[in-house]
Write a structure and sequence with these properties.
Length: 740
C-alpha cells in the first residue's frame, strides 16, 4: 500500500513538471527553464515564502509571472518605477490575447482608467497587478484588494527594503504591515543585488526568515570591467561610442544636468543619443525609453531612474560618467549590458575627488545614514582603485568566492596585470595592529595608526601612545589601504557590516598571524595623486600617444617662453600639448578643438605649433584622426558670453553662481577654463575684496617664476598661507594678463 502511494506521488510530481513546461511554452514560447527558475516557480506554487537573488538577465520576472498565470486570483507585484511597470505589463500582454491579463496601478492613471483596472480584477481576468508602494499604502486601494482573491505578493527590486541596499525606499519598509491587512498569502521577494547583510535585512523586515532562498551566482562571464582615470571624460566617451557604430549603450551620470549636457554633446557629435531622468515629463521619458528599446536611438544618457527591468538584451556597453554611490548600484547598472550572453563592456570613469564630493552630500543626514553611506562609498572606491581582479572583488562583496584565473582576462586588471610583491611582512604587521587594537577599528583608523597620523580619533583613543603607533610609517596610507583590501579579499580580515566596517580577524587571519607564509600582493595605483592620460579605444586599450612629437612640442614651447620671458605653461598647458599629440592639428581652426585652446590662445600662440605638427605629419606619413575631433556645444558659448558679461558688470562671483544654481567653486572653475583657452577676463574687482595688494603681488610673482601652474604646488609652496580658491583667483589674473 505504501509502495502504491509512493508511485502515485511520483506521478503527481511528474505531471506538475510536464504542466509547468507546457505552461511555459504556451504562455511565453520558451522550451525550457533557465537556471533555478523551475524550482523557484514550484516553490511559489507550493505556497511557500520565496527569496530570489538572481543577476540581471537571469530571468527573475518569469519566477512570479508564470505562477501568477497558473494560480487562482491576482498576484500583486510591488514595483518601484512607473517605467518598469509599463515595460513589464506590455511584455505580458504581448504574450496574451487578453489586454486585461495584466495591469498597473499608479499615479499616472486617470480615474476612468483606475475604474477599468478594478473591474478587470473583480471579474477575475487580471492575473498580475503591478503597483507602486505609494499606491499600495492608499486606504481605498487596501480596502479594494481585501475584497478580491490574491494569489501571492511579489516584491520586485526587493533591495529597496534595506537601508543597506543601494536604492533604499522608506515606503518599502511598510509592505509587510500592508500585506497582512490585505491577505495572508505567500510572498516572493526578488532582487539582482543583495549582500548577505541586505538579504537578512529584507527577510527580517518582511517577516519571512522561513523563506526558501534561491541564490544564483553573481558572475556574468561575458562582461568586461574597466576603470579609467577621469580626465577629458566627454571626449573619451565620444571617441569610444564612435568606435562602436550602431551598437546600443547606456551612459550613466549622477545629475540630471549632466545627463542633458552630455546627451546634447553626443548629438552634436553625430551620435544618436537621448536623455532620460526623473525631471523629464512622463511622456518624454516613455518616448525616449521606447525609442531606445525599438532601436530608433543608439544611446541613452541617464540617471539611475533608467534601467530597472528594462528588457533589452543587446546593450553592448554601459559607461559610468560618474562613479556610482555603491557597488550594488554599479553591479546592477553594468548588469544591463550583454543580457543575451554577447559582448558587454562596462567602463567607469573614476577620480577620488568624486568620492569626496559624494561624502559631502551625506552631511546633514542622520548619523546612521551617514555611516552607511560612507561605508558604501568606501567599498566602491576600493573596487575602483584595486589592482586585484575586478570580478573577484565584485563576487567577494556579494559573498561569493571566485578564482581569478577564471576571469579569462575579462577585466582590465587581469588583461593587463599589475606588478606583484611579497606581502607577508606587511600583512602580518597589519593583522598584528588589528589584533592589538582589539578588533574595534575601521580601515581608515588602522591605516592612520600604521602611518603615524595623529587624527582626533586616534588621540581620543590614546592610540598615539601605543608602542605600534607609526610602525608602518615607511609606507603611505594608500599603500596600507591596499594591504587591507587584499587581506579582506584573501579572507584574512572581514569588515563587520553591523559596526559599519570595523575590521575583524577571521579564523584564517588568526592562523596567519601565528604562522605567516608567502602572500603575493598587487601594487595599486593612487588616484589621489596620479595625473595621467588614458584614452579608451576599440579594444579597451590606450590610444597611441606620440612621445616623439610631444618632446618636440615641449622644446618649442620652452624656446618661445625664453624668447617672451614668460613661464612655459602660459603658452600652452600640459594637457593641451598632450592632446595635440593625439589630434595632430595642422590649422589654426583645428587647433581650437584641442583641449584648453580657444580662439584667442590659438591665434596668439598656435602658428608655430601647427607649422611644426604639419611638418611632422608630412615627414612621418601620419594618418590623422580627424573623424574623432570632438565638437563642443554651442550653448556653452552662450553661457560663457553670459558669464563674461556679468563679470564686465562687476557682479560678485557668488551672486553670479547663485543666479545659475552653481557654487562659487564651480564659477571660479568655469572662469579658469575660459582663461586657459585664451580669453582675457578681468576679475580684479573681486580679487581686491579677497586679498590685499601685497598678498596678490606675492602670489603673482610666484606664478611668474614657477615651472608649473599647479595650484597644489603653489599651496604647498606657501605652506597653506593662502587657500586654493585665493591662489586660483590670482592664477586667473596672471594668465589673463600674461597669456591672453
Amino acid at each position: 500500500m505504501i509502495l502504491i502511494y509512493y508511485f502515485r506521488l511520483v506521478n503527481v510530481f511528474a505531471m506538475i513538471e510536464v504542466d509547468l513546461k507546457e505552461s511555459l511554452k504556451i504562455n511565453f514560447g520558451f522550451d525550457g527553464f533557465k537556471g533555478e527558475q523551475e524550482q523557484i516557480i514550484d516553490n511559489v506554487l507550493s505556497g511557500n515564502n520565496t527569496f530570489v537573488i538572481m543577476p540581471t538577465g537571469g530571468g527573475k520576472s518569469l519566477c512570479y509571472q508564470l505562477p501568477a498565470l497558473i494560480m487562482e486570483g491576482t498576484a500583486v507585484v510591488v514595483s518601484p518605477l512607473i517605467a518598469l511597470m509599463k515595460n513589464q505589463v506590455d511584455a505580458i500582454r504581448h504574450h496574451s490575447n487578453d489586454e486585461s491579463i495584466a495591469h498597473f496601478l499608479n499615479s499616472s492613471l486617470t480615474k476612468r482608467e483606475i475604474h477599468t483596472v478594478k473591474e478587470d480584477i473583480q471579474s477575475g481576468r487580471t492575473k498580475l497587478l503591478y503597483v507602486a508602494p505609494e499606491s499600495l499604502t492608499k486606504e481605498e486601494n487596501i480596502d479594494f484588494l481585501t475584497q478580491v482573491p490574491i494569489s501571492f505578493f511579489a516584491i520586485d527590486e526587493a533591495h529597496c527594503i534595506s537601508e543597506w541596499g543601494h536604492d533604499f525606499r522608506p515606503e518599502y519598509r511598510r509592505l509587510r504591515e500592508i500585506f497582512e491587512r490585505i491577505s495572508k498569502v505567500p510572498i516572493i521577494a526578488l532582487t539582482a543585488t543583495a549582500t548577505p547583510k541586505v538579504q537578512h535585512d529584507i527577510q527580517k523586515n518582511l517577516n519571512m526568515l522561513d523563506a526558501t532562498v534561491f541564490k544564483s551566482s553573481f558572475n556574468r562571464e561575458n562582461l568586461f570591467y574597466k576603470i579609467i582615470p577621469k580626465q577629458d571624460v566627454e571626449k573619451q566617451i565620444i571617441r569610444y561610442i564612435k568606435s562602436k557604430p550602431g551598437k546600443s549603450g547606456i551612459v550613466y551620470c549622477l545629475s540630471r544636468k549632466k545627463v542633458e549636457e552630455l546627451a546634447e554633446l553626443l548629438q552634436v557629435n553625430g551620435i544618436n543619443a537621448l536623455p532620460y531622468h526623473a525631471g523629464l515629463d512622463a511622456g518624454t521619458r516613455a518616448k525616449n525609453q521606447d525609442m531606445f528599446l525599438m532601436e530608433e536611438a543608439d544611446v541613452i544618457v541617464a540617471t539611475i531612474a533608467f534601467g530597472m527591468g528594462i528588457d533589452k538584451p543587446d546593450v553592448r556597453f554601459v559607461i559610468h560618467h560618474d562613479i556610482p554611490k555603491s557597488l550594488e548600484s554599479y553591479y546592477q547598472e553594468t548588469g544591463r549590458a550583454g543580457r543575451d550572453g554577447g559582448e558587454g563592456e562596462c567602463i567607469a570613469f573614476y577620480r577620488y575627488k568624486d568620492v569626496e564630493k559624494l561624502e559631502k552630500f551625506l552631511q546633514g543626514k542622520p548619523v546612521a545614514e551617514q555611516e552607511i553611506g560612507r561605508q558604501l562609498l568606501n567599498e566602491i572606491a576600493s573596487y575602483a582603485e584595486t589592482s586585484v581582479c575586478r570580478r573577484k572583488m565584485i563576487l567577494h562583496y556579494f559573498g561569493e568566492n571566485f578564482d581569478e584565473r577564471n576571469c579569462n582576462a575579462h577585466c582590465d586588471n587581469c588583461k593587463d596585470p599589475k606588478e606583484k610583491y611579497e606581502g607577508k611582512e606587511y600583512v602580518q604587521q597589519l593583522l598584528r595592529v588589528v589584533d592589538e587594537l582589539n578588533e574595534t577599528q575601521r580601515a581608515k583608523h588602522i591605516t592612520s595608526f600604521l602611518v603615524g597620523i595623529e587624527t582626533a580619533e586616534i588621540k581620543n583613543y590614546k592610540h598615539d601612545l601605543h608602542p605600534l603607533f607609526g610602525s608602518g610609517k615607511e609606507k603611505s596610507d594608500h599603500f596600507w589601504n591596499a594591504v587591507v583590501r587584499q587581506s579582506v579579499v584573501n579572507g584574512l580580515l572581514l569588515k563587520d557590516i553591523e559596526t559599519y566596517g570595523v575590521l575583524k580577524l577571521t579564523k584564517e587571519g588568526k592562523e596567519y598571524l601565528m604562522h605567516p607564509k608567502s602572500l603575493m600582493l598587487y601594487k595599486e595605483r593612487d588616484y589621489k595623486v596620479e595625473d595621467e592620460d588614458s584614452i579608451i579605444t576599440n579594444d579597451g586599450g590606450g590610444a597611441v600617444f606620440d612621445d616623439v612629437l610631444y618632446k618636440q612640442l615641449v622644446d618649442l614651447r620652452k624656446s618661445i617662453s625664453k624668447q617672451k620671458g614668460i613661464p612655459p605653461f602660459v603658452i600652452f598647458q600640459e594637457p593641451s600639448l598632450k592632446d595635440m599629440c593625439l589630434q595632430y592639428p595642422i590649422t589654426i581652426d583645428e587647433m581650437t578643438n584641442v583641449q584648453g585652446v580657444g580662439n584667442g590662445k590659438a591665434m596668439r600662440y598656435g602658428a608655430p605649433f601647427v607649422a611644426l605638427i604639419k611638418e611632422y605629419v608630412d615627414a612621418n606619413d601620419i594618418e590623422r584622426p580627424q573623424d574623432l575631433v570632438v565638437r563642443s556645444l554651442g550653448s556653452k558659448s552662450g553661457l560663457k558670453v553670459q558669464l563674461i558679461q556679468n563679470i564686465d558688470r562687476k557682479l560678485p562671483l557668488d551672486d553670479i553662481g547663485a543666479a545659475q544654481g552653481k557654487s562659487l567653486e564651480e564659477v571660479i572653475e568655469e572662469i579658469s577654463t575660459i582663461v586657459a583657452s585664451g580669453t582675457k577676463v578681468n576679475i580684479d574687482y573681486y580679487i581686491d575684496e579677497v586679498l590685499d595688494e601685497d598678498n596678490q603681488e606675492e602670489i603673482y610673482d610666484y606664478f611668474s617664476e614657477a615651472e608649473t601652474d599647479s595650484i597644489e604646488d603653489a599651496y604647498n609652496e606657501f605652506e597653506g598661507d593662502y587657500t586654493e580658491e585665493e591662489l586660483k583667483l590670482v592664477w586667473i589674473k596672471f594668465m589673463s594678463e600674461m597669456a591672453n
